[in-house]
UniProtKB/TrEMBL annotation, chain A:
This is Penicillin-binding protein 2. The keyword Membrane applies. It comes from the Bacteria. The gene is mrdA. It comes from Xylanibacter caecicola. InterPro entries: Beta-lactam/transpept, Beta-lactam/transpept-like, PBP_dimer, PBP_dimer_sf, PCN-bd_Tpept, Penicillin-binding_protein_2.
TrEMBL record, chain B:
Keywords: Cell shape, Membrane, Transmembrane, Transmembrane helix. The keyword Transmembrane helix applies. The keyword Transmembrane applies. The lineage of its organism: Bacteria, Pseudomonadati, Bacteroidota, Bacteroidia, Bacteroidales. This is Cell wall polymerase. InterPro entries: Cell_cycle_FtsW-rel_CS, FtsW/RodA. It is found in: Membrane.
């Protein structure tokens, strides 16, 4: 026997090494195959060529079925870098497309730059140039065989029938890098809604992409259909939208607001549907399509009048005297006043050296005539007594927060939740706000101006219109929305739910009476008509420079069909712009057209421009 | 005649059927993988001889036949003719260098009519026989320098010829014989030093450009310096039996490195490898001083190992960085690293993708999109394990790896039970070769070891390698089957 006992232990060392190697490899396999999903995705993009078929985006109509936005074919030029490399007569290519060589080089470099184009792969089609017209396409197609690696992808572009409602409709544009990261649906070169309902209803409008899966080898050559097309999907068209907007009303509103900065919002009180939403200045949505979108967009963005801003939901303004209605409702419901309570007002509210001016009317005065004549004094006294009522409220803070609760219940101070992007919440101060502002030392006198819609209070024009709708409904509102129906889908439940305010239904009747009085023999007299009963309230908001002209109203008084708010920046008294514009809007909607006299009046207002300074707004 | 029948019967009775079973199941799984890897669109018949899967069946059947024939030969045949077989293969290797049929720059093919063979695959078994014969001689002593050098030259001769054929990868396989030498008494420190140098080089070069957690240090250098410190502690523990000293080295190294790292990351960014070098040199000086004060020579050797390690790593790094890129490529080719030195290359990346996409259960037989669509080069030969990973998933890979492990452990058991040194040495040669192939081939597919173009035994497509591995294994099985005859 020739055994080597001395080194026999080494069999275990060698065996141990073998075991160790296998264990290490198993751990590595485990991390590669089970811990990580990346490789799987990588493999799919490696081997599968997914030919995407784009769905048609949903079309958009107004509440009466008039077509507002539809699709038209356009063509995108796509490039596969791997195939295009060094095989292109650049000069001829550039001439065919009418682009410069510098642009070509820049574009090719941008495509390869993963910072700008995160989904880049040299094997897949990348967007080279978008939205060719039919004409440009036919020129290119003739020569396409000479440009290896370039393909044409049929897409659709948005077309607009009317030059109106740009802010509501919004627009589509190529997805940003962020969009791609946020949602796996998108690939570079896809389109996405950027503003308006195009954005808020993107998921409904975009539909589902179809896909045909091909297998390809390492050289990018198509080897066949994957599993005989069992996994292929046809595209599903996007869902059509019916807006609650009446495009004729919208067009009239835009016409009336020409040359003025401001907003008109009309709501159908019984549903919360927004009938029109004018933000002035506006722009023609038809200019925001095609390859010039970028240029037009940046020009609009530079405009000092900020036409891109949707003032109806983004502008936060003092509501002025239209706010008095909400105060009357609060004071009545809280028992601070009764319908018979009168307060003295001889040209204003005078107390402890503080003076809030008012115009001439009978004194003392009760709630209904106070609304009718838009008496400042009455509401100042009301707030003063509410804040000072220590029997009901332990402190001014408690009184203030009770007040705040009323305001919030009416839809102020928070976003209403309209189905458009970018809504602002406005401002309703609370006790804490004033504690911070005045270091805890404040009372009803300090904050008196909020009772007449001045001071810290800010509302969006939409919130003012919604106040009108709430009064029209005598105490509740539906969340305003611009989309009446998404095809084959029920309306979001949040738009069919009634929101009751804290004010009592009885209180509303007094406020309605006051607003009716304002039209029959008060500040809104110009809106009075014989065919239906209009209720209204003017507002004149003080600010630096000329006052803002405001109107809030609804019609008819019983079974109201439309509530409207008009806000004209620096328009002067409420009666000057607000009332007549509001009256025309109501007439248009209720009668379906304007009478010849009203038409003349409308033209006159269309041409009455307000001179604004050059300062940014 | 009667005697012959008896012998054959005896062989089959004392044959290690466990090993045969593992061999057969590996062949079967290997064939499935080749089918998956070479399957193409529109190829209807996997058994057709025009396909690689069909051809592989031919190789498998002939291999089994070959194995049977080998079992029928007398066990003394291998012992007796070991040197002659070795000399013949050496001659064949030498002749192949000058043959005109080069395939992809490799001159390793011998073309006989329609048959193409790679003599390098058969030289492994010849070399194993020769070295077993040499070392089993009564007067052979591995600790005698002359004997050790003769053993080494038996290993190096075929290596040189194979390198001359531009098949460095296959040549490197012969290094696995050192594992056998280790079992036979070669000082572990020799094997360890060799392995350590290879690790330094591969780790250092491969991760040279990876920054360590956003500090200026490179992961490659950091890892190598840490390894040197770890090795020195380990050697002090093992060879000087001084546990306290070993712990001191570890604590000192870790403490200083951590402090330097925190300082570098949060205060002043600097290359913490410099601190590591200073620490390591200090450790070496301390060990040298200890060698003088205690007169234990092992401390001195360890100190030299530490200094030598740093010297080797930095000189290799320096030489590599000074060279021009085409020279570097040649070095890489010479080292068998081919074009994938930094592991960032196409092959490995694609093979990781293919394996990773397999998941737990794999995509199923012939459903692997990566391999089927030829994303992985050499997918039915060197990168065959990708196909296993993609189509059979983690479970399939785990099964294959455990079968290989079972084979190697079983071979260790068989080798240890040999009554003669010849059988044991030959057995260790066989299992070392299998282990080396498994280690390098699966490792490179998983992106862990350098890409060296050697096949995975029983899996990779090809007749020569399959025959070669079969011969290696069945000669040993034949020797093992005769283990009890000596006593009769």
């Amino acid at each position: 026997m020739n055994k080597n006992y001395e080194f026999e232990y080494r069999q275990y060392v060698i065996g141990g090494v073998a075991v160790l190697i296998v264990i290490i490899y198993l751990i590595r396999l485990f991390t590669l195959q089970i811990m990580s999903d990346d490789y799987k995705k990588n493999a799919d993009s490696n081997a599968f060529l997914k030919k995407v078929e784009f769905p048609a985006r949903g079309v958009i109509t107004d509440r009466n079925g008039r077509l507002l936005v539809y699709n038209q074919h356009s063509y995108d030029i796509m490039v596969v870098m791997k195939e295009a490399k060094n095989r292109l007569d650049t000069t001829e290519f550039c001439n065919t497309l009418g682009i410069t060589k510098e642009y070509f080089i820049k574009r090719m470099n941008d495509i390869k730059d993963r910072n700008k184009n995160p989904g880049y792969s040299q094997f897949t089609q990348q967007l080279f140039m978008s939205q060719l017209t039919d004409e440009e396409f036919s020129i290119f197609q003739e020569k396409m065989y000479r440009f290896p690696g370039f393909y044409v992808q049929r897409r659709s572009v948005r077309r607009y029938t009317y030059p109106n409602a740009a802010h509501i409709l919004g627009d589509v544009a190529e997805v940003s890098r962020q969009d791609i990261e946020d949602d796996e649906f998108y690939m570079p070169g896809d389109y996405i809604g950027k503003q308006g309902v195009e954005r808020s209803y993107e998921k409904e409008l975009r539909g589902e992409k179809g896909v045909q899966i091909f297998l390809r080898d390492a050289h990018g050559r198509i080897q066949g259909s994957y599993q005989n097309g069992a996994l292929d999907r046809s595209p599903v068209a996007g869902k059509d939208l019916t807006l609650s907007i009446d495009i004729n009303l919208q067009a009239l509103g835009e016409r009336l607001m020409q040359g003025k900065i401001g907003s008109i919002v009309a709501i159908e009180p019984s549903t919360g549907e927004v009938l029109c939403m004018v933000s002035s200045p506006t722009f023609d949505p038809r200019t925001m399509t095609g390859r010039n979108r970028g240029k037009v967009h940046s020009a609009l963005a530079m405009d000092p009048w900020k036409p891109l801003l949707n003032r109806s939901i983004m502008g936060q303004y003092p509501p002025g005297s239209t706010f008095k209605t909400s105060q009357g409702l609060t004071f009545l419901t809280e028992g601070v006043i009764t319908p018979g309570t009168t307060f003295p007002c001889s040209h204003g509210f005078y107390h402890k050296g503080l003076r809030v001016g008012c115009h001439g009317h009978a004194s003392p005065i009760s709630l209904v005539p106070a609304i009718t004549t838009s008496c400042n004094g009455y509401f100042c006294w009301g707030l003063y007594y509410m804040m000072g009522n220590r029997k009901k409220y332990k402190s001014v803070q408690e009184a203030m927060n009770t007040w705040r609760d009323y305001m919030v219940s009416m839809g102020f101070g928070y976003k209403l939740g309209i189905d458009l992007p970018g809504e602002k919440r406005g401002l309703i101060p609370n006790a804490e706000y004033y504690d911070n502002a005045y270091r805890g030392s404040w009372n009803g006198m300090t904050i008196i101006s909020i009772s007449i819609g001045q001071g810290e209070v800010n509302l969006t024009p939409l919130q003012i219109a919604n106040l009108g709708a709430t009064i029209a409904n005598r105490g509740y509102f539906y969340t305003p929305h611009v989309v009446k129906k998404v095809k084959d889908m029920p309306l979001d439940r949040k738009f069919t739910e009634r929101h009751y305010t804290k004010a009592s239904k009885k209180a509303y009747e007094y406020v309605v009476a006051g607003m009716r009085g304002a039209v029959t023999n008060g500040t809104c007299h110009a809106a009075n008509r014989s065919d239906y009963e209009v209720c209204g309230k003017t507002g004149t908001a003080q600010n630096r420079g000329q006052d803002h002209s405001i109107f809030m109203g609804f019609a008819p008084k019983d079974n109201p069909r439309i509530a409207v708010s008009v806000y004209v920046e620096n328009g002067g008294y409420g009666a000057e712009f607000g009332v007549p514009i509001g009256a025309l809007m109501m007439e248009q909607y209720i009668n379906g057209k304007l009478s010849p006299e009203s038409e003349t009046k409308a033209t006159a207002f269309q041409n009455r421009h307000i001179t604004y300074g050059a300062r940014n707004r | 005649m009667e005697q012959g029948t008896d012998r054959q019967f005896g062989v089959l009775r004392s044959l290690d059927w466990w090993t045969v079973g593992i061999y057969i199941s590996l062949l079967a799984f290997g064939w499935i993988s080749v089918c998956g890897a070479s399957y193409d669109f529109g190829e209807p018949d996997i058994f057709s001889l025009s396909t690689r899967s069909g051809m592989q069946i031919v190789w498998i059947v002939t291999s089994i036949g070959l194995g049977f024939v080998l079992l029928m030969l007398d066990n003394r045949f291998y012992d007796t003719f070991a040197y002659i077989i070795y000399a013949a293969l050496l001659l064949l290797l030498f002749a192949t260098i000058f043959n005109p049929h080069s395939i992809k720059g490799s001159r390793s093919w011998l073309v006989l009519g329609s048959l193409r063979l790679q003599p390098a695959e058969f030289a492994k078994f010849a070399t194993a026989l020769a070295i077993a014969k040499l070392m089993s001689a009564y007067d052979f002593n591995i600790h005698r320098r002359k004997d050790f050098l003769i053993a080494c030259s038996i290993i190096f001769a075929p290596m040189l010829f194979i390198i001359a054929q531009n098949e460095t990868g296959s040549a490197l396989v012969y290094l696995s014989f050192f594992l056998m030498l280790y079992r036979e008494g070669m000082p572990g420190s020799v094997l360890f030093t060799g392995v350590a140098m290879v690790i330094y080089f591969v780790v250092g070069v491969r991760y040279a450009d990876v920054p360590l957690l956003e500090t200026p240090a490179s992961v490659g250098k950091f890892a190598v310096m840490s390894l040197i410190q770890l090795f020195s502690a380990g050697m002090v523990y093992i060879y000087c039996k001084n546990r306290k000293q070993a712990w001191n080295i570890i604590l000192l190294s870790v403490g200083i490195t951590m402090a330097a790292f925190l300082l570098s990351k949060y205060v002043v960014p600097f290359d913490i490898v410099i601190i590591q070098i200073i620490t390591t040199v200090a450790i070496a000086c301390r060990l040298a001083y200890r060698a003088l004060s205690t007169r234990i020579r092992n401390y001195l050797y360890i100190s030299l190992f530490v200094i030598g390690s740093i010297g080797f790593f930095y000189s290799a790094d320096l030489i590599l960085s000074k060279m021009q890129s085409h020279q570097r490529t040649r070095i890489n080719v010479l080292l068998g690293l081919q074009d994938d030195l930094k592991g960032a290359g196409y092959n490995v990346h694609q093979s990781e993708i293919a394996i990773g996409s397999g998941g737990l259960k794999g995509k199923g037989f012939r459903n692997g999109t990566q391999t089927k669509l030829k994303f992985v080069p050499e997918q039915d030969t060197d990168f065959i394990f990708c196909t296993v990973g993609e189509e059979e998933g983690f479970l399939g890979c785990a099964f294959v790896l455990s079968m290989f492990l079972a084979l190697i452990l079983r071979l260790i058991k068989l080798a240890e039970r040999q009554p003669f040194k010849f059988g044991r040495i030959y057995g260790y040669c066989v299992l070392s070769i299998f282990l080396f192939h498994l280690f390098i081939n699966v490792g490179m597919v998983l992106g862990l070891t350098p890409v060296i173009g050697i096949p995975l035994p029983f899996f990779s497509y090809g007749g020569s390698s399959l025959w070669g591995f079969t011969i290696l294994l069945f000669v040993f099985l034949r020797i093992d089957a005769a283990r009890n005859m000596a006593r009769k």
